[in-house]
Design brief:
By secondary structure, the protein is mainly beta. The chain is built from 1 helix and 6 strands; from the N terminus they run E-E-E-E-E-H-E. A hairpin with a 5-residue loop joins strand 1 and strand 2. It is flat and about 30 Å long. The N and C termini lie close together (about 10 Å). Bound molecules: FE2/S2 (inorganic) cluster (FES). FE2/S2 (inorganic) cluster (FES) binds next to helix 1.
């Protein structure tokens, strides 16, 4: 699995299809998770990082195993 932290933006997770969130299954091939703390739709990115002036470098995390 790979998690990508976009420059000045959210973490992107490629799920490949459906995910279960608090027991509810949804079709979400890609998740954008907030890493700035400003989203009004946590844990998802709402785009608020832009107005918040969030700055962070891009990062790629590979999860092995
Ligand atoms: S990263 Fe987009 S709202 Fe936080």
């Amino acid at each position: 699995m790979q998690i990508t932290g976009t420059e000045n933006g959210p973490y992107l997770v490629e799920t490949g299809g459906r995910v279960s969130i608090d027991g509810e299954t949804k079709e979400m091939p890609r998740l954008a998770l907030c890493r700035c703390g400003a989203s009004d739709n946590k844990p998802f990115c709402s785009g608020a990082h832009k107005a918040a002036g969030f700055e962070a470098p891009a990062v790629t995390i590979e999860i092995e195993g």
